[in-house]
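Section handout 9: paired folding examples.
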Amino acid sequence: MESLLVITNSEAGTSDQQSLDAALGVLHGTMSVEVAATSNPGELDGVLHRAGSRRIVVAGGDGSLHAVVSVLHRRNELKDKVLGLIPLGTGNDFARHMEIPLDPQEAARVLVTGHIRTVDLIVDELGAVVVNNVHVGAGAQASRRGHRWKKRLGPIGVGKVNLGKLGYPIGALQAAFLPPALRLRVEVDGRVINDFDQPVLMVAVGNGTSVGGGAELTPEADAEDGVVDIMISRATGPLAKFAYVARLSRGTHHERDDVIYLRGREVSVSGEEFFASADGELYGPERTRTWRVEPGAYSMILP
């Protein structure tokens, strides 16, 4: 009987727990299952330390998967592990990209009947990982402003019913009207693709296709092809910005003349200060950052 270690967030709400219980009901009887709830990186590290040869199932969203992959990568144990995913997050972009059902019970059935395939990983020069997508510019600006508004509005309300949920929509709206135009040099596999004389609206490096619950920044990405997709938007004029956003909503923005779309193994971004959003985690300001792909870095149970 296959043995699974299911990792979940100890701070998950009642609805998430009910969804998880339904998924576990599919697994019981066919697999040996241990559920471990963690709330911080220290607890997660301790749980993974005793995982042994068991398959590790993440019950959560893209951020939860990122956290598990990050710890295993840091411990040099990622290559030898087999991961599964029960999507319980808000966006679930990577699950969607890998065609893992968003219904937890259906996702659990994949853990029983699915196939093990290797998946690529993005790693930066500091050893930090990106499972799905990292982007610089307008999108990261929206995340940054949204986080500020979430902190401001979070105390207004009761429990989970508060105005903090309006933070990201407000940040996105501000970024749409006041998006940054950054002077950045973008190099792909040692070749300069964009230089300082050409300002950019945003740069995205994609292992998966979408962010934010379905916005396809790198719509042709494939997490199993050994390369990353790079999207550079030069839509910095007032009308061009709105036209770009309209095409982004349809996943056809990469066909515009002011957008460069290509593939590569290593991407370097440098220039004036910028913020980056990697799997939803915001960091910066930065002056330079390099991301490279590690083909077949780990294994997942997939449909």
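Moving on to protein 2 of 2.
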Amino acid sequence: MTITCNGKPLELADGARLQQTAHALIPTASVVIRNGFQTNEDVLLEDGDSITLIEKGVLPPQDVLEHMMAARHSPHVHETVKRACVGIAGLGGLGSNIAAMLARTGVGHLILADFDVVEPSNLNRQNYYVSHLGMHKTDATADIIRQINPFITVETHTVRITEDNAMDIFGGCDIVCEAFDNPACKAELVSALLSESDTIRIVAGSGMAGYGSSNEILTRKRMSRLYVCGDGETAAANGVGLMAPRVSVCAGHQANMALRLLLGIGQP
């Protein structure tokens, strides 16, 4: 029978067992994944199975890492997102978390844009660490992405995004995730991209402040190429701050909608 091991075809005799085969092929492998499912069971292998063998705590070569991610995501999903280009406009509470999620999802090309630097008040909800204080958010986010998956292409633009430069930055994207705090800046970006491009889809965020129910965060299709995530009304105000749980829930909605669009699933 023929199986695939770490992305390469391998001929085995009928009756071969998973753990026995793994130990024979890579004795140091401590993580064994069969058809996308990590297991310690010594099951019989079947023709067409795909196995991934990796050593804990060690970065595998790019081809092995991609085979592992393809197995975890399913091959057609991984190949689709690997070819995709997604832009993230704003790298605050929404954008910094969206970037990390899309990197873990395996999006092959991320375009990051923000003009600001990481400062202490960001740490309560944004995907940064004390070591990033004073760094431009573009550089800090790129650093985090490299630690998640060093084989992703990351393009950074440390500028304030306006209607005049939006297409220059994001014109080649399949999807742009809007992650601004300022409503006027949100409207300006969305208007510029929808009017100047016939293909870019936008996934925006609106309403995620405070500690209300997570179930109020929804994804809604507003126009043919515009999706809005959030509760649509809860803005930061006196006594209602931006907090990590609800902001992260909204960021998850945006990242998931971007993934669905890349996979051809247009409705929330």
